[in-house]
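pasting for ref
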Amino acid sequence: MCRMNKSYSLISVLLLAVTLLMAACAGNNSNEESSSGEENSGQSSEVTLDSQMGEVTIPADAKRIIAPYHEDALLALGVTPAAKWAIGETVQDYLEGQLKDVPKIEWNLPQEQVLKHNPDLIILENATDSYEGSYEDYQKIAPTYVMTEEMTNDWRKQIQMFGKMLSKEAKAEEVLNQYDEKVASAKETLNKAIGDETVAMIWAKGDQFYLFEKNRHSAEVLYSQLGLNQPELVKELGKAQTQWSPISLEKLSELKADHVFLLAKENEQGLQTLENSSVWQSTPAVQNGNVYTMNDPSHWTSKGLIASEKTIDDVINTLSE
């Protein structure tokens, strides 16, 4: 009887050990599956989104992306495009610090150039008739997303949508929040620095001059976001049209702005013209020494998060000194 009890005890111990071992293995497998599941959940997967041309399925982990003239939004998300917008040798100068080694692609997207860059994803503006190929042509090369007109004109919406496309929604939210904080801080600084004084922007291109309307590129940053005041002549211009319209020197004599940002590359002919113009020299901003020449007009004449940040930096560095 004693031996049998010992045998039962030994068997019981062995069974308990096997049970514990199996439970441990099952736990490890469960942990591994859980860990694997967590890793997989962090990976990109294809996503189907509405576009101006209907639903488009964006491939997972798209790396080679072409979004001509909207590289600003990609770079804001930490994504380097496969090619950058260009008109001949003209590029978006303000992005060259990040894009200098990226090959150019002509603005109207010749199909042979697009093929050469072997894109995973093509992002187009709403006005597709400005491109050399048709939507169907580009779709044969890679999945092609066509932005709505609203998105084409709103860089915030671009960043949000690009974030969805590229599984970077958290990054999109982060950079937009950071930008809003930058605007709030700059607005407070400028209110203390110049108060209710008025500000205008003039672009000298060749020997022509363009006064920014209230919603023209960087003017929207200054007036709508930073809350700076428009002079009467800018108010009279109304909203910007698609095409820039030059303004005469005689009309510029009516510009009663307290501060003027003059955008012109070095040695631009217009700078000499203004220097020699008694009409220009008699305006309040010139008389008070409040004309600030910006030799890189590229971010002032563009829309985007990076362009806007650079413009805000210029304004703060100039007006708060």
